[in-house]
Automatic annotation (TrEMBL):
There is a cross-link at C143-G145 (5-imidazolinone (Ala-Gly)). One of its GO terms (molecular function) is phenylalanine ammonia-lyase activity. SUPFAM superfamilies: L-aspartase-like. The gene is hutH. Its main location: cytoplasm. Keywords: Cytoplasm, Histidine metabolism, Lyase. It catalyses: L-histidine = trans-urocanate + NH4(+). It is found in: Cytoplasm. It comes from Streptomyces xiamenensis. Pathway: Amino-acid degradation; L-histidine degradation into L-glutamate; N-formimidoyl-L-glutamate from L-histidine: step 1/3. Contains an active site 4-methylidene-imidazol-5-one (MIO), which is formed autocatalytically by cyclization and dehydration of residues Cys-Ser-Gly. This is Histidine ammonia-lyase. Belongs to the PAL/histidase family.
């Protein structure tokens, strides 16, 4: 993998994923060092003046009224890291910590934070050797940025606290830095504050959720198509001209995906053979509309994430010299996480509703009164066997949890810092619950996959009438069986099947299997 070059010209979502999930190496460009050095010169000029400058020669938050003399400023910057590293609860996942560190490095490299190039070089070195600071679940209000999580990362940079080494063992940060030849930072004016004051945790989790959900929306299109096929539903509702007259782009993509998966099926269109149906149930017929609305929500979230990725979030910031005015340091409110918190909550709503419609299709497959000839619960010998009865219970429990997670965090605010920080975003909380929701949606889709593929196998009894699943469905069934997910037959220990199906969805194998026949899906 090529190294990711940090440059003021910009960072891409793919860069963040490469560093967070694939341990890509990080390098600083010459332009980065130049921009940082220029901003640092401005900070040092202001630090030498008698006038107080927030973050340079004052305290922080509600304590900003105190002017800090030069001999106390190194202690000030060290102390803000120590005091703000106040997280509690379970450890945050390694990929999240790497994402927030890399995103903070990206902002340091922008030339707007006023830290020395050595600070960015140390952070890059820690990432490159695989040292991961211990960050805890609770501590961020999403304003002023992700203070506690970033403080725990900064604590590692100054050689304090604990971190996880590349071998996965948690040890004192000072020992890990020494083993890898990294000198702990001695922070100077503004540098401690600049390491803490950003939306990097929220943004990193949003970028990863966007990547995961893009794949899951395609997976949901596939399982919806398989269920339509297993229920002998009609694919006429997927006709492009029907979706063109309601021109939501995500809806058109989902309908096209489903149509490609169903191409060549001998099962679709037989919804009037056993008990005539004028039209399929909403959970089948409206799948493109619901899946597509989620896609459009995702598109909006990605736009917000890309804007934030182009930002330099810090307070105060260094404003370069321009128009005859010298460089200056200005306070601002760009650290407020509202833009991210809103879309993180919006995505959680879309996830919950997609999971809800998915569970309704699964329940329809298992109910002999609505499944059009399939055995109760898709059991081998119903009564002796229970089939997938309890798999649907598990799916329903997941959906119920996802509905609770859809309650927005960003509408809450608890004032802090002696009412100086009197409105906060709770964006970190929104990001944490969205990660849980994405994992839950993966499991919900996996249960529908188990049910739909089993139902399609049971439909093979109609082969004498020439009613066979389509080629894409057959490819998915074969691939999921090869992955260890059992089919119809006598009851067996079911949890391993569900776990294998979850991995099949999460790792992209479902989409890959369908695309071997259907071609690239949107």
């Amino acid at each position: 993998m090529h190294p990711i070059v940090v440059d003021p010209s910009g960072t891409t979502p793919a860069d963040v994923l490469a560093v967070a999930r694939h341990d890509a190496r990080v390098e600083l460009s010459t332009a980065t060092r130049t921009a940082m050095a220029a901003a640092r010169a401005a900070v040092e000029d202001l630090a030498a003046r008698p006038e107080p400058v927030y973050g340079v020669s004052t305290g922080f938050g509600a304590l900003a009224v105190r002017h800090i003399s030069p001999e106390l400023r190194a202690r000030l910057q060290r102390n803000i890291v120590r005091s703000h590293a106040a997280g509690m609860g379970p450890r945050v996942e390694r990929e999240v910590v790497r994402a927030l560190m890399f995103l903070r490095l990206k902002t340091l490299a922008s030339g707007h934070t006023g830290v020395r190039p050595e600070v960015a070089e140390t952070m890059a070195a820690v990432l490159n050797v695989g040292i991961t600071p211990l960050v805890h679940e609770y501590g961020s209000l999403g304003c002023s940025g992700d203070l506690a999580p970033l403080s725990h990362c900064a604590l590692t940079l100054i050689g304090e606290g604990e971190a996880e080494g590349p071998d996965g063992r948690v040890r004192p940060a000072a020992d890990l830095l020494a083993e890898h030849g990294i000198t702990p930072l001695a922070l100077r004016e503004k540098e401690g504050l600049a390491l803490l004051n950003g939306t990097d945790g929220m943004l990193g989790m949003l970028l990863m959720a966007c990547a995961d959900l893009a794949a899951l929306f395609t997976a949901a299109d596939i399982t919806a198509a398989l269920t339509l096929e297993a229920l002998l539903g009609t694919d006429r509702v997927l006709a492009p001209e029907l979706h063109a007259i309601r021109p939501h782009p995500g809806q058109a993509v989902s309908a096209a995906n489903m149509a490609r998966v169903l191409a060549g099926s001998g099962l679709t269109g037989h919804h009037q053979d056993d008990a005539p149906r004028v039209q399929d149930a909403y959970s089948v017929r409206c799948a493109p509309q619901v899946n597509g609305a989620g896609r459009d929500t995702l598109a909006h979230a990605r736009q917000v994430a890309e804007r934030e990725l182009a930002a330099a979030v810090d307070n105060p910031v260094v404003v370069p010299a321009a128009g005859g005015r010298p460089a200056r340091v200005e306070s601002n409110g760009n650290f407020h996480g509202a833009p991210l918190g809103y879309v993180l909550d919006f995505l959680a709503i879309a996830v919950a509703d997609l999971a809800s419609i998915t569970e309704r299709r699964t329940d329809r497959l298992l109910d002999k009164n609505r499944s059009h000839g399939l055995p109760p619960f898709l059991a081998g010998d119903a009564g002796v066997d229970s089939g997938l009865m309890i798999a649907q219970y598990t799916q329903a429990a997941l959906v119920s949890e996802l509905k609770r997670l859809a309650v927005p965090s960003s509408v809450d605010s608890i004032p802090s810092s002696a009412m100086q920080e009197d409105h906060v975003s709770m964006g970190w909380s929104a990001a944490r619950k969205l990660r849980t929701a994405v994992a839950g949606l993966t499991r919900v889709i996996a249960v529908e996959l188990c049910a739909a593929t089993r139902a399609l196998e049971l439909r093979e009894g109609l082969a004498a009438q020439g009613l066979r699943p389509g080629p894409a469905a057959r490819a998915v069934v074969d691939a999921v069986r090869a992955a260890g997910v059992g089919g119809a037959g006598e009851d067996r220990y079911l949890a391993p099947d569900l776990a294998a199906a979850e991995a099949f969805v999460r790792d992209g194998a479902l989409v890959s299997a369908a695309e071997t026949v259907a071609g690239p899906l949107g």
